[in-house]
Specification:
This protein has 447 residues and is an alpha+beta fold. It has 12 helices and 22 strands. It folds into 2 domains: 3-26 and 246-445, Alpha-beta prism (UDP-n-acetylglucosamine1-carboxyvinyl-transferase, Chain), CATH 3.65.10.10; 34-243, Enolpyruvate transferase domain (UDP-n-acetylglucosamine1-carboxyvinyl-transferase, Chain, Alpha-beta prism). A hairpin with an 8-residue loop joins strand 8 and strand 9 (158-161). Bound molecules: shikimate-3-phosphate (S3P). Shikimate-3-phosphate binds at residues 32, 105, 177-179, 182, 204, 328-329, 352.
Length: 447
Amino acid sequence: MALSKTRASMPAHTFNSSAPLTGRIRVPGDKSISHRALMFAGLAVGESRITGLLEGEDVLATAAAMRQLGAQIERLDDGTWVVHGVGLGSLVEPAQALDMGNSGTSTRLMMGLLASHQLKATFVGDASLSGRPMNRVITPLSQMGASFEASSVGTLPLMLHGAFPAVPITYRLPVASAQVKSAVLLAGLNTPGITRVIEPVATRDHTERMLTGFGAKLEVGEENGERVISIHGEADLKPMDVVVPGDPSSAAFFLVAASIVPGSDLLIENVGLNPTRAGILTVLKQMGAEIDELDPREVGGEPVADLRVRHAPLSGIDVDPAIVPSMVDEFPVLFVAAAFADGTTKCSGLEELRVKESDRISVMAAALTAAGASVEEQEDGLTIHGTGGEPLRGTSNSRVKTHLDHRIAMSMAIAGLASKDGVDIDDTAPISTSFPTFIDLLDGAAR
Ligand code: S3P
């Protein structure tokens, strides 16, 4: 089994000291919600329409895989995506390997979806994804009856043999992971009986919200202080129109950029503020960031607001580890904010960052050090001694290694905006996995 196709070019880019960020921008649709919208619409019988879908490579990998499984998915000229679902239980065996590119979410959620169907499927991915742990989903899905052929350490490429009927289980998550939770719930959709997931620590709840919207019978309760989600199979999903709000994880780069570049005053429209995702706002505000939430409203069953962010002096803080799940993807850019704060910022409880698209603790420690910041790496976190608002030196004669990780590339791009010599990034191509318009929006806002 081969790795997935790799991107042809590796465009390096230097991000230089920036003019103030001003005006209004709109970040693309939420990545987590976009994946789920395509998957669930693909399982419903009938036509669903999705607007605001993120058209990044990760989500396009999900669309391609759902097509291989029998869903009809079409993009209209106005940007609406129309999905004719194949129906739960009726997925077809893919003729070719499912190429998941860089996307852990596509892989783990699809593994769940397929685990309770009587078919075989091969999953491949790029070098980053092929190093990421899949045993966290293989373990519960095997308990439900699926079987897997993977490397001895449980990585891609792997072959899944689904089972129908699968066996409902009660699974207590050993790691705080929305992907593992979702994989088990999606397997439970096509499994007769009640499949339960116990979450000692709450993670993003887009799967629960959206599956309910598509007509699944799903209950969320609490037992001994832990969240318990029960899904009733075999479900019958009904088509639904989904409006995808802007991605708070993408907005985070601009929140930090405007906070650290003097003179900035930027409005970011339509940002999803689901409480299971909005930890970055809380932490930046604790550091002194000036962020106002304007016109709070609901879009597609998710809380949304426009965010006005103005340059402000930041102070170092100890980040409460309890907030980690609600901002797990935002730590690379939070480290950048901390590098400009007055004093020391300590982040702990970040073990999960070591198994993201890259080891985000050590890769960010190396990147920030190369740009002149003062950081200390711990097993479960990073301590950052800030400049007190002064620019960083920049990477003068070195180049930041991004290790196929979009969030490292974007975070260090933001660091470059407040640096003397600029920050040179080895590869900006991975940015397209989650935020294809990132560089254009940055150029537009800093004009
Ligand atoms: C995601 C869950 C998180 C997050 C990822 C998207 C999701 O991963 O890091 O970018 O859409 O469910 P984990 O569940 O592995 O923490």
